[in-house]
Amino acid sequence: MPLPRRSIYSTRRTPAPTVPRGLMPALREARETIAAQQQAIMTLQSGLAALSPRGPAGAPTPRVPPSAAPEKCELQMSPATFRSWRRSIECWLHLCRCPPQEAVHHIRLHCVPALQCAVDARLAFDCLHTERGTGCHR
Question: Where is this region: Disordered (predicted)?
Fold first, then answer.
């Protein structure tokens, strides 16, 4: 026995739910509150993205290859060569986005071992003298 065919027009549709008029002001207020909260969230998200040092969240972080690092600083450098090296290391640290606290360590690592020892000795000597007076500032 075949099933009777029904057209889409013959099926009974359920009426859309109606909202009582007494609830309309409450629904309107709820929509306005949600819209204001969504706007506040979007403002906070854009503010956080602007604070990020790496830019928007989806932006790739640029990587500086190790081969782009400046040559090592030596004890026998002339003043002109040292000024050129200093400028190179400043640009390299800027490209790598090193914070100032880490920059000192990177600069020290880009010196030959003998110069590292001289820098360490000088910093220890300065620290020893300031320790006697006002305290060591590291």
Answer: 1-20, 51-70
Structure tokens at 38: 């969504």
pTM: 0.41
Q: How many domains does the chain have?
A: 1
Can you tell me the distance from the alpha carbon of 121 to that of 42, in angstroms, rounded to the nearest whole number?
53
Question: Are the CB atoms for 85 and 70 separated by under 8 Å?
Answer: yes
Q: Which distant-in-sequence residues (6+ apart) come within 8 Å of 57 by Cβ? A: 49
Each residue of 105-131: pLDDT tens digit? 777 778 888 888 877 777 776 555 555
In a domain, 83, yes or no: yes
